[in-house]
Amino acid sequence: MTTTREDDELLTDVQLPILSTDTRVGFSEFNRRAGDFALAMAVVTYRLKDDTILEPRVAIGGAEARPRRLIEVEAQLVGRHPSPGVFIAAADAAAEAIDPLEDANTTADYRRDLVRTMTRRALDSAQH
Fold first, then answer.
1. Which residue of 32, 92, 100, 113 is surrounded by the most CB atoms within 10 Å?
2. Are 64 and 101 in contact (CB under 8 A)?
3. Structural domain of 64
4. Do the domain assignments include residue 46?
5. What span, in angstroms and rounded, lies between the C-alpha atoms of 46 and 54?
6. pLDDT tens across 11-46, in order?
7. Whole-prediction pTM value?
8. With contact defined as beta carbons under 8 Å apart, do 114 and 32 qualify?
């Protein structure tokens, strides 16, 4: 895995905004052994107003060459009510949206299934 940082660049500052009180956050990852790099992970944030999802962010890592947001999945969540059906559809869309890595131990289909599961778990955990 690599970053987009060039050899002559140095990260000197990271600023993260304070999340509003109506923001929900969920995270899930899978690795074979504690401390290993994740084979797949998902992080989800969204604001919840009047039981409606606003400003969703869905990102995955470990399953592709670089971590990234899944904007097409976010679009499916906007304006929806958090529910198992909505979350299942979003997780399925996440699995379809990726270009999974393959190696001697992990097939592309396996990583797709992991992304599906990690996205669903992250969405579920954001509700609580």
1. 100
2. yes
3. 23-126
4. yes
5. 6
6. 899 898 899 999 999 999 999 888 888 999 999 999
7. 0.88
8. no
